[in-house]
Amino acid sequence: MTLKKPQVLLLSLAIATVVAACGKQETPAPTAPADSAAKPAETTGLKLDESKLPPVNRFAISDLDTSKDACTDFGGYVNGKWLAANAIPGDRTSWGAFEMLDERSTAVQRQIAEQAAADTQATGVEKIVGDLWSTGMDAAKINAQGLEPLKADLAKIDALDSPEKIAEYLRASAATGDNPLFGFGAEADFKDSANNIAYAAQGGLGLPDTPYYFDAKHKDKLAAYEAHIAKVLELGGTPAADAAKQAKDVVAFETRLAKVSKSREQLSRDVSLYYNPVSPADADKLTPNFSWTKFFESQGVALPKMFSLAVPAFHQEVSKMLADVPADQWKAYLRFHAIDGASPYLADAFVEENFNFYNKTLRGQKELKERGKRVLDTIEGQAGEALGQMYVKVAFSPESKERMQTLVKNLSEALKARIENLAWMSADTKKKALEKWASFTPKIGYPDKWRDWSGLNTNRDSYYANVKAANEFNYKWNLSKIGKPVDKTEWGMPPQMVNAYYNPLQNEIVFPAAILQPPFFDPKADDATNYGGIGAVIGHEMTHGYDDQGSRFGPTGNMEVWWAPSDAKAFSGLTDKLIAQFNAYEAAPGKFVNGKHTLGENIADLGGLATAYDAMKKAAGDTPDPKTDGLTRDQRFFLNWATVWRRNFTEKEMEVRLQTDEHALANFRAIGAPSNLPAFAAAFSCKPGQPMVREGDKQVVIW
Q: Rounded CA gap, 318 and 315, in Å?
């Protein structure tokens, strides 16, 4: 079972843009609507002991390092002392505001899961969560089972001896939700966003990005990956000498795929790469050794007139490989990924080897997460919204939702004013931009309708079997949407996830409950602090509708050209300046931020912070500045913005993010947007020429 697919970009969140990469390795399971009422689930007897929860990370005046000048080193001024005093925990590769809230959310989830597991008569979502928790925590049973849960699947792989049998295996395995080669599922049609079509996306790679297979700077990681493959195959029963040879074959296999794959940067900066509409018959001609007509039939999906075969060169190469790659090499590749994907749910030896490569070697994590945290990560990945129904019952107040609605309204009005006053945009394009503004849909806290989990059968017998059942259930549910209208009540993140996102296909901004805590949102804090935190996040997500990729989608969510050519040229000139700004940020000697890869997020930060500042000033009106703790409103606004982005990284995690993450490193996000705002310079009495004052041609003003 290949549940861990670092390279497969699952569609709904691949095209959506999120506020932060939070470090969780597993992709959340798809969410779906049901007929539940628009309120938290009516779970019974759940209780939350607040005293057992980790603290949140609020801005505190004592954090400020007054030996530093805010105009010269704003990040050090706000966060230097905190970062020095807060080392990265051994089971993490980064530590900051996001991770602290994630720990708090995890602690809430643990209390819920333990209570669900204690109720042996539970039904519905409580039974699912309780079964996953109970079996996942039974280390003795998991260790006793060893590789037994996988033996039937491995036997099927061992029997493959021809291209036809391999293709048939790939179809049959995919039908259970296990597809090591490519991502496949439903998503809104880019040209008709009210309806879902099928998408097939590239995949098949075990390393984080295509350059890991070619660039000299990643040579050590490629060698470590080969050693990891050999070790996994040995754990699966392959003799050491054979495992070493097969590992070379697997690396060669994946390198061939990598040569025809798009990089993370290419995918993030050209969303159209996901959209290549073809008929199944035409797709069959492109890939003569892999029939898409048969594939749809094998997945139980009615043959459509059209689907998106994204990155066709990748799929053409797979077809060629079915013909010219020896069966033994295919078997080595499939056997490795079957074991590797299942490793987190197997005996300790498999878990430890999985950790040693993906977390320790690649990212610099010192210690394996304790079992409870790992099981909760799995529950979030496989039954996230089921757990979320219980989470919001005990951890999210109606008052928070109401106050958020007010903030969203204020940010929306501020963004409208900014659009109306743009000097570089023509009237016709501006009219379309305002149409898009008027159609924004905000979602706050949790879904209006909960997903129906009936049909997912779990038990207390096997952790692996429960995870496999959930994975197949989610896959089949997702496929059931192909050819049907989009349900706009769906969410792409569960309520307990500390994040937020914008989906251009639905023109929606989404804020799960777990992010609505300090330093982002604090019911006890003044408006300036909240506008600098969650207000800027709201503005960030709204601005994604107009970043370099979001701007390719119109008011209805359809991909269309709605910019006048002169406006597109002006916009490109402004964004080029932002690329140059971030290209100049050096994370470590000789290691720089990629301004092009991170462009969308940097545009959103800049527009979001500026919009939030406008909204704060309008909300304050003519009321006197209270100067809390001797700090002005404007100062507190910018100080909390920087507090949100306080974050330590291991050296290896930093290197992975510089290569793969569309977000700039947090310390640069803390300073990048404010340095372009005259309001920042005024707030801290900065002088021309200081690092936090970008002037003239260097100043970037977009939205």
A: 5
**Which residues does 103 contact at the CB level (< 8 Å), separation at least 6?**
54
**Edge-to-edge strand list for the sheet holding 508-512:** 17-18, 501-503, 508-512, 441-445
C-alpha 77/C-alpha 66 separation (Å) is: 7
Kindly state the helix (H) or strand (E) to which residue 431 belongs, with its residue range. Answer: helix 427-438
509 by DSSP, 3-state: which?
strand
Average pLDDT by stretches of 10, the chain with 703 residues: 39 62 37 35 74 92 96 98 97 97 97 96 97 98 97 97 98 97 97 98 97 97 98 98 98 98 96 97 98 98 98 98 98 98 98 98 98 98 97 90 93 98 96 96 95 97 97 98 97 96 96 95 92 97 95 96 95 97 97 97 98 97 94 98 97 97 97 98 97 96 95
The side-by-side arrangement of strands in the sheet containing 183-189 is 183-189, 192-201, 307-309, 277-278
**What token pair was written down for 522?**
């604090």
Structure-token pair, residue 486: 């989009």
Are 602 and 672 within 8 A, CB to CB? yes
Q: What angle do CA 46, 48, 50 make, to 5 degrees?
A: 175
Q: HSE-up of 604 (CA within 13 Å, CB side)?
A: 31
Of 457, 454, 478, 479, nearest to 466 (Cα)?
A: 457
* Distance, C-alpha 678 to centroid of its chain: 32
230 neighbors 283 (Cβ within 8 angstroms): no
Tokens of 617: 């000033």
H helix or E strand, kind and range, residue 636: helix 633-644
Name residues whose C-beta falls within 8 Å of residue 610's C-beta, 6 or more positions apart in sequence: 418, 539, 673, 677, 701, 703
Q: What is the pTM of this model?
A: 0.94
- Terminal-to-terminal C-alpha distance of the chain: 45
Number of Cβ within 10 Å of residue 223's Cβ equals 11
Tell me the backbone φ, ψ of residue 492, rounded to 5 degrees: -95, 0
CA atoms within 13 Å, Cβ hemisphere of 485: 3
Cβ atoms of 414 and 611 within 8 Å: the answer is: yes
